[in-house]
Design brief:
mainly alpha, 368 residues, 51% helix
Amino acid sequence: MGLLEFNKLPINTLVGADWKTFNAITSGRRVDDAYRSKYRLTKSVCRLLSLLKPLQDSRYTKLLADKPLEHDPVFILGHWRSGTTFVHNVLSCDKHFGYNTTYQTVFPHLMMWGQPFFKKNMSWLMPDKRPTDNMELAVDLPQEEEFALANMMPYTYYNFWFLPQYQQEYADKYLLFNDISEAELKVFQDTFTKLIKISLWNTKGTQFLSKNPPHTGRVKELVKMFPNAKFIYLMRNPYTVFESTRSFFTNTIQPLKLQDIAPETIESNILSIYAKLYHQYEADKAFIPEGNLIEVKFEDFEADAMQMTEDIYRKLSIPGFEEARPAIEKYVGGKKGYKKNKYTYDERTVQLVQDHWDFALKQWDYNL
């Protein structure tokens, strides 16, 4: 158990942003009175740590900037709470994969200089389990990269964690790339490529393994960037996804937000953005070359993770499964008996899902 409780953090994750990104995200946005002390402390720590960014920039330029990627990434896609974390943890047992770590999500500019010191302190302070689902938390564990991107540039969907009143705006621009400018898109491309190179250097992998729900709305752009990338798309019962996402967003946003948002607004945004993400993916998956996409029901993966993992390797022509099998078997075996959250669905929840997400229920053949 870490020294700090997740829901009582005195700062938010923008402490790891560079100064230019911090100012671009918060400029012109209102900070509610209740969060001004958190904002000021976060800003002060960010300003101080930003002084160290040139040290990493220098090392990156020298060691990695001109180094080409050996392989295009493997992307794990799916709406939040669709089982992407479990699949990410399973596949990351394969040592040829590199990934973004939990430490990197918060301190992406302190990877190539000072990491041992800052990582030790982060490990000492942070809780050892996610409060929403009891999944383990540790500084070196695989983590989705959107929080890291949010500390490296202002053009990410995860700005909504800090400024939730603008969630729909961030979704349209930076989740779906509908209103993103060419200049902003170029920054995304360059920043994401930089993150991948640093992640591979840090974890000693040769192929980047991405688990990042926001990428589900960016498939078309990702294929342009990485023409031979592999994609694993996870589906899960929409009733469970809605109940779990509502709980996850409502709880996770508390220590991160700098302005208030009503629970009913969070719920409305979830319903709307799920539909946008679903339809964007369905439209854009046609851009993925044949043989580079597999769609998996999480319930099937959870029931037989070993067989489903082997199927993923085979269908996507990913080498190395036999070499990785012992490590994957050890991880999967260790998860037996893991206590998942159990969800019950009241009449209102059932009606909301049926009214707003009926298309997913029908296409994927889900019911209560």
